Amino acid sequence: MESQTIIEKVSKGSKSSFSKGNLLEQKHSKNILNQGIPVLVSSQLLRSRKMGQIDQAFINSHGELELWEIKCHPHLVSKSQIRRISASAHFLGILLNKTSKIRFIN
Predict the structure, then answer these.
(1) Where are the domains of the chain?
(2) What is the DSSP letter of 25?
(3) 5 vs 105: CA distance, rounded Å
């Protein structure tokens, strides 16, 4: 099965500082248990392959791998960061034999 990557942007409100970004990531971490099966991904592995680190990953109820990138200002995500995260989604999708989705959440 060939891996397929889908990118979505999800808006959850407006936050304005780095510390609020950390709180936002913690908040969404708690929600993952309700969304599906959490997946632990080594940042070191992804960095060693020149791929982007991901904030949260889980397998949803449809059997898809969802990668959540939580940002206070998603409109400031650079094209190079999107490329790195997309490479991570593609790589992990192949490893797990799952369709992968990327969601930018704020």
Answers:
(1) 5-105
(2) H
(3) 17
